[in-house]
């Protein structure tokens, strides 16, 4: 598959794929690969006109006559409102605090902070979720240590699960003060 995508990136060929990820898994899209690595492809999605990254492990090359449903560029994932955000914060706050994190929220963002060895609070968050309104498909932007790239989600619940997993993996060292 990598070879086919690399060839298409050099020739400008358009390929029909079914992507088993993203906001509409299992839908057919037309892509024009631009660059290819062993794990992902950067391509112009002709269904949306946007530059996208696709994981090769979730791509299936198909013919134009594939029975898979067409990707619907007009379908915007449901954006969860403040009540849902607050519900997620309330659901996970005590678990995060029990791990030693200081939990801060503002508007539609949550950030996890730790302390320096001297006991003072670190101002820079280590893990968090931000709502990025300009990204209508995947508005929940997450960040954490050891991520090559920030990760975004269409679903707030998935973003919180990611946050909690990272919070467990990176829990702060307890201060002796």
The residue-averaged pLDDT reads: 86
Report strand %: 25-35%
Q: Uncertain segments of ≥5 residues (pLDDT<50)?
A: none
Largest sheet: 5 strands, antiparallel
| Total beta-strand segments | 10
Net shape: elongated
Q: What structural category arises from helix and sheet content?
A: alpha+beta
The helix-strand sequence is HEEEEEHEEEEEH
What does this structure look like?
A 5-stranded antiparallel β-sheet has the order 4-3-2-1-5. A 5-stranded antiparallel β-sheet has the order 6-7-8-9-10, covered by helices on one side. 23% of the residues lie in helices and 30% in strands. It has 2 domains: 61 residues, SH3 type barrels (Roll), CATH 2.30.30.140; 88 residues. By secondary structure, the chain is an alpha+beta fold. A hairpin with a 3-residue loop joins strand 2 and strand 3. It starts with a helix and ends in an 8-residue tail after the last helix. The mean pLDDT is 86. It contains 3 helices and 10 strands; from the N terminus they run αβββββαβββββα.
């Amino acid at each position: 598959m990598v070879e086919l995508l690399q060839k298409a990136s050099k020739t400008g060929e358009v390929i029909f794929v079914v992507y088993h990820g993203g906001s509409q898994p299992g839908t057919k899209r037309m892509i024009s690969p631009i660059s290819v690595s062993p794990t992902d492809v950067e391509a112009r999605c002709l269904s949306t006109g946007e530059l996208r990254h696709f994981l090769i492990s979730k791509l299936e090359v198909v013919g134009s006559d594939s029975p898979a449903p067409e990707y619907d560029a007009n379908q915007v994932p449901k954006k969860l409102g403040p009540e849902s955000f607050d519900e997620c914060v309330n659901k996970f706050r005590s678990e995060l605090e029990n791990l030693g994190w200081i939990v801060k929220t503002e508007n539609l963002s949550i950030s996890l902070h730790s302390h320096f060895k001297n006991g003072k609070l670190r101002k820079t968050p280590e893990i968090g979720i931000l709502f990025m309104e300009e990204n209508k498909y995947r508005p929940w932007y997450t960040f954490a240590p050891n991520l090559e790239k920030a990760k975004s989600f269409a679903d707030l619940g998935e973003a919180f699960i990611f946050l909690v997993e990272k919070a467990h993996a990176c829990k702060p060292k307890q201060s002796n003060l």
